[in-house]
Amino acid sequence: IEITFRWINGHNNLGLKTNVAEISKDYNDHDDTDDIDSTPDNNKPKEDDIDDASVVLSIVTGSVTGTYIALTMAVLAILGGGITLIRKFVI
Q1: Judging by DSSP bridges, how do beta strands 50-57 and 15-22 pair with one another?
Q2: How far is the C-alpha of 20 from the C-alpha of 40, rounded, in Å?
Q3: What are residue 56's phi and psi, to 5 degrees?
Q4: Which of 69, 76, 78, 89 is surrounded by the fewest CB atoms within 10 Å?
Q5: Residue 74 — very low, low, confident or very high, per pLDDT cuts 50/70/90?
């Protein structure tokens, strides 16, 4: 099952958080496969219809900075090579 949760960006919403999910409805009410050892949506952590997962929320900054540094170094290398060729063959 894929679960999507929304996050509000704020100072108090960073770090380790616990995401809790529980089955809230049993659609097999008239079937022999009913889950007889738990009751949906009763918020009892020991039942097998509830689980939690630790989620780390963080902000990554500076990822574009590496691109700018690499681009700047490439431009400087091209300019340095051009100046060297001009001094060697033209001047």
Answers
A1: antiparallel
A2: 14
A3: -100, 120
A4: 89
A5: very high
Cβ burial of 64 (10 Å; 0-12, 13-18, 19+) is exposed
Q: Name the residue among 43, 47, 18, 52 with its Cα closest to residue 35.
A: 47
Is the separation of the CB atoms in 51 and 3 below 8 Å? no
Spatial separation of the C-alpha atoms in residues 53 and 9, rounded to whole Å: 20
Q: Which two tokens stand for residue 37?
A: 């050892």
What pLDDT, in 10s, does the model give residues 23-62?
777 666 555 556 666 666 777 666 777 778 888 877 766 6
* DSSP output for 3-70: -------SGGG-EEEEEEEE----S-TTSTT--TT--TTS--TTSTTEEEEEEEE-----HHHHHHHH
Find all residues with CB under 8 Å of 24, minimum gap 6, and list them.
40, 41
Q: What is the DSSP-derived secondary structure letter of residue 90? A: T
